[in-house]
Specification:
With 177 residues, the chain is mostly helical. It has a single domain, classed as Cobalamin adenosyltransferase-like (Hypothetical Protein Ta1238, Chain: A). The chain has five helices and two strands. A two-stranded antiparallel ribbon has the order 1-2.
């Protein structure tokens, strides 16, 4: 099997249900941006913190489910779909990390250690993916759990960035106004 098919040479691509759409369609923009976030999360591991690395590996698998979900305009019950449990899992990771962190008292500047800065970058890309999914949902049916997952994931990546920076001994900086 070759990696190239030539089917996209005219600017069209297949959705999961084999319907053809423009590569610039909102659906492609949404799951393509999720793919970008997933690839960025892949550049973060290893962080040097096994628990964070395990969480990020699971997040990458979840993001494949988000992509499959967004790529399918009419899913069957057996198709990959984001479920409430995926969102709840993110919430549990956020809560666990928060127990180790000082309370947040102001906005902080994104950055820190190499892994912390990359997690902040992934958070920003995840927010863009969420905006793309919300734009898609304004015009077409979208699984509400997929949108909620992206919203919660950006919170989780932010919290993991804070956690990694704390463990790496990097002080958080507040913006000056």
């Amino acid at each position: 099997m070759t990696i190239y098919t030539r089917r996209g040479d005219e600017g069209m691509t297949d959705l999961r249900d084999m319907s053809r759409v423009s590569k610039t369609s909102p659906r492609i923009e949404a799951y393509g941006t999720v793919d970008e976030a997933n690839a960025l999360v892949g550049t973060i591991r290893p962080t040097g913190h096994d628990d964070v690395d395990e969480t990020l590996a699971e997040i990458q698998n979840h993001l494949h489910v988000v992509q499959a979900d967004l790529a399918n305009p009419s899913p069957d019950e057996d198709d990959p779909q984001v479920r409430e449990e995926h969102v709840e899992r993110l919430e549990s990771w956020i809560d666990e990390a928060d127990e180790e962190l000082d309370p947040l008292r102001s906005f902080i500047l994104p950055g820190g250690s190499e892994s912390g800065a990359k997690l902040h970058h992934a958070r920003a890309v995840c927010r863009r993916a969420e905006r793309r999914a919300v734009a898609l949902a304004a015009d077409e049916p979208v699984n509400e759990h997929a949108v909620a997952y992206l919203n919660r994931l950006s919170d989780a990546l932010f919290t993991l960035a804070r956690l990694v920076n704390k463990r790496d001994g990097v002080r958080e900086e507040a913006p000056t106004y």
